[in-house]
Amino acid sequence: MIDLHMHSSCSDGQHSPEKLVEIAETYGITHLALTDHDTISGLSAARTAAQKHGIRVLCGIEISTNVRHQHILGLGVSPASDVLRDACEQFEQRRIKRMHGILDALNGLGIALDPEQVTRYASGQVGRPHIARAMMDKGYVSSVSEAFEKYLSLPPVRAVKDSKISDADAIALIHAAGGHAILAHPLELS
Fold first, then answer.
1. What is the C-alpha end-to-end distance of the chain, expressed in Å?
2. What are residue 5's phi and psi, to 5 degrees?
3. pLDDT tens-digit profile of 171-184?
4. Which three-class secondary structure state does DSSP give residue 92?
């Protein structure tokens, strides 16, 4: 069995790259692509774990673009690519800036969180699921889905700007890193 679109805790997944590979093996997956959002930080760990479990790992990434709900998968990218590593660093800085904006918006709604409470859940790129988990810890909500439904979907939070790259730039970046660009979640674009 093959899964070419998996996320670890390096972005918005629940498990470390190592644990993700272990779980994949229990489901009979023989080939997988780790495609964390805007980062390649988990690829080395996934590849090392995959060797122990007899699983083949294809290096990947999922790049968030400035088109609403449009993400581009990069499969077969080179983790040694300087252009890709530099872009991932820029993505990380962009996500940190966005996190601060979301925390400011939540503070205005009476939800007080500090960045350290959020980033301890992120072993890579920080995102809204990490904010939701911090909200759970502080007792504001009882689940991640409740955090999204009650707070993270409100206009002040959604108004926080995120300077993502264009789809054309994402495709060019993937190609420059030796990968193949594929549209992720095509049914969500309608």
1. 29
2. -155, 85
3. 999 999 999 999 99
4. helix
Tens-digit pLDDT profile for residues 43-62: 999 999 999 999 999 999 99
The secondary structure of 106-119 as a DSSP string is HHHTT----HHHHH
pLDDT at 49: 96
Beta strands in the chain (DSSP E): 2-6, 31-34, 56-64, 71-75, 180-184
Question: In terms of Cα–Cα distance, which of 46, 62, 59 is closest to 11?
Answer: 62
Q: Measure CA 185 to chain center.
A: 14
Average pLDDT over residues 126-153: 93
What letters, b where the CB count within 10 A reaches 16 and e where it falls short, cover 148-171? beebbeeeebeebeeebbebeebb
Give the pair of three-digit tokens for residue 76: 């077969």
3 state DSSP class of 67? coil
